Amino acid sequence: MSELTPMMRQYLEIKADYPDAILFFRLGDFYEMFLDDAVKASRILDITLTSRGKGGDGNDVPLCGVPYHSAAPYIARLIEAGEKVAICEQVEDPKSVKGIVRREVVKVVTPGLVVESESLSPKENNYLLSLFGDGGSRWGVAYLDISTGDFRVTETDGEDAVWSEVACVDPREILVPASLRDSGRLAGRADLAAGRMISAIDEWVYDRDYVERLIRSHFGVASPDAIGCGGLAEGLQAAAAVLHYLQQTQKGRVDHIRDLRVYRSQEFLVLDESTRRNLELTATLSEGKRRGSLLGLLDRTATAMGGRKLRQWINYPLVSVEKITNRQDAVAELVTAAGVRTAMREVLDGVYDLERLNGRISLASSGAKDLVALRASLEKLPPLFDLLDGVDASLLREIRAEIDPLEDVKELVARGIVTDPPFVLREGGIIADGYHAELDELRAISREGKGFIARLEAQEKGRTGISSLKIRYNKVFGYYIEVTKSNLSSIPEDYIRRQTLANAERFITPELKEYEEKVLGAEERIVELEYGLFQEIRQQVAAQGERIARTADRLATLDVLVALAEVAHERGYCRPVVDEGDVFSVTEGRHPVVEALNVSERFVSNDVLLDNAENQLVIITGPNMAGKSTFMRQVALIALMAQMGSFVPAAEARIGVVDRIFTRVGASDNLARGQSTFMVEMMETAAILRNATPRSLIVLDEIGRGTSTFDGVSIAWAVAEYLHDTERCAAKTLFATHYHELTELAVTRGRIKNCNVAVKEWNDQVIFLRKIVPGGASHSYGIQVARLAGLPHEVIERAKEILQNLEKGEYAEGGVPRIAKGKRGTAAKESPQLSLFEQGADLVRTRLAGLNIAALTPLEALNILDELKRMV
């Protein structure tokens, strides 16, 4: 260390405190990076990597750098690449310091703590999430969007629930205790950790005494009970880790985080990770795109904060009938009042992102243009008040009462900041005329400069008689009088020589020197004074951050209500009746997204009736591509939309409040966790059977298809029976299957009904009618669907032949099925090996041997007789 230069020694001392971050080390007009940081940053940023021998031992030191005044896009690219960036500034004036300038890290930028708009998606929160579990089943979850100040905490039971919450929040960065990261437990959820930075927090941070002190200190309360966190032991520990991390990275500048919102899963309709994905709530399954998701359809919000609020409503539908009804009342009034709705959209369209403006102002990272945007947004409030003055819905009246006009903030910014300020804060031109007397005086001096120089030049020409005399200025010598050498004999005695040129001499006079000191001093003072005044104004606005945040939240809620009303009006949605009953009834329901995207084909609506008395479980059969999955997903989406307060795509709907929606749809594996498609299917099914209640809604598609036919039928049958017979989890269920054997459940189970998707056969073709009708399907039309998919004609014809043989139970001598053919289409040779297929007579005998004739009902006997007839 003693061989290093003083500057490199300082760099390495600071870098030692931030080993996991790329250090932006301020040197003059550049942020420099050295050693490994330089190598890594140059590769990510695609900038030149150079070196110089400054290590003190003759070895070259790798280095690269970026201009400090345009560092933001470089930092954004590093963050996008999953890196942290520590910003190290000069905290002393180099002009007043002998030797090396003192430097300190003033902020650490991480993926979860981004506030710059270039790195943020306007309609998505950027969350930092913290997890804490003490080894039991209870987990604390806290998450913060530092750009908006949104800070929430909850507790969950079990790892499945906590990872479901992680999937819902979708954080950019996750904080965990160091022991949890090092234990390897996170490796099992590499799928959710992928693309997210995992940051370890020292174990001592979770000490109960430290946690309570940190919470009390930050929120200024006597006890966590004062902010509604009483009893949330693990939740508080997770939240304290967030606050501790902020102290380490933001150096205490987080005054806009004034509230910690506690929520509990019982307050919302619970959606697990699989359900969110299968229903394509915020992104499509195939491409992860917003377009094609429920969010993409419903988002007609005019503001960025409204878009984020809508995403929250979709992710956290309500279960309180009163709260749902309040939202519905507001949407209903806005649907009816088309003129008011349109006018509100126009006003809201001119409102900037107040939440993120407020965050940047509070963090002292905002520019003058941010303050102007705040003022412009506040100027939109008076016409909005006029529109809200005549509303009847209680939620709209509540919004009107809670929107703060913030007249004092608007007046301060209007009086202090020019209408179109520059981006750079330290070059002047920010503060409005008339705001500060000294500044106005200095500006007058600066503005009069040209006139003074012109008058002085004319005066000196007249006094000396030198017509070519000129007064000029440069940064090196300041103001000077230039006289050609041929006129030197005419200069007065008070001219003081400053510089000699080839053809001229440059002079100053006492009057010119006095003016120079006055003007140049004024310009420097103007820049210094303007920056100080801007900081004062920004601090005064930041002090009103809580009022700004409350107004932003109310405007975001209004924006969502207007957007939902706009979609309901445009798409012809109805207002569902939401109550505490167990009836789930939809008349002429449609899939909201498919209906909107498929404009070339009229969407076929369908009815559904589910309850806990007679229609608890509906078995749905029918061919692939007929619309079973679409129908089931639309039922789930209608339930979710109703409980988030939206109107729904149907003619009529009655929704008994659902506590959870479960879906088991589609085939997927998880190679990262060593799980096959069938294993994933069974694990998801197991989670449903463990957690479902009679108030839940379950969507099951093709249970048991990932294994052998007999195994699959057996599992599907047993699952259906369990859902019907087990009182604890007798949930309303839609059960789609190709196992037609399951339709027999309706004979023995009173709350099971059969439905199928109607099709029409014509000239060996199948026409999908998309209509759900009572009864089971006779067969699956798989070969017809294969033809539509483009399989070769030879394959289709051979498949039809095999199907006929299987259905007739035809076998060759020796027990070999006739579907088996050798090369060139010849029949397979007889084999002494036992056949995997029983002879038809054997199947009949086995079935008869297992019957209890005395216990059969007449209807069951007829069904079995029909089955035996098909087996021979």
UniProtKB/TrEMBL annotation:
SUPFAM superfamilies: DNA repair protein MutS, domain I, DNA repair protein MutS, domain II, DNA repair protein MutS, domain III, P-loop containing nucleoside triphosphate hydrolases. It comes from the Bacteria. Gene3D superfamilies: 1.10.1420.10, DNA repair protein MutS, domain I, MutS, connector domain, P-loop containing nucleotide triphosphate hydrolases. GO terms for biological process: methylation; mismatch repair. InterPro entries: DNA_methylase_N6_adenine_CS, DNA_mismatch_repair_MutS, DNA_mismatch_repair_MutS-lik_N, DNA_mismatch_repair_MutS/MSH, DNA_mismatch_repair_MutS_C, DNA_mismatch_repair_MutS_clamp, DNA_mismatch_repair_MutS_core, DNA_mismatch_repair_MutS_N. ATP binds at residues 622-629. Keywords: ATP-binding, DNA damage, DNA repair, DNA-binding, Nucleotide-binding. The keyword ATP-binding applies. Residues 696-712 form the DNA mismatch repair proteins mutS family domain. Pfam families: MutS_I, MutS_II, MutS_III, MutS_IV, MutS_V. One of its GO terms (cellular component) is cytosol. GO terms for molecular function: ATP binding; ATP-dependent DNA damage sensor activity; damaged DNA binding; methyltransferase activity; mismatched DNA binding. CDD domains: ABC_MutS1. HAMAP family: MutS (MF_00096). This protein is involved in the repair of mismatches in DNA. It is possible that it carries out the mismatch recognition step. This protein has a weak ATPase activity. Belongs to the DNA mismatch repair MutS family. This is DNA mismatch repair protein MutS.
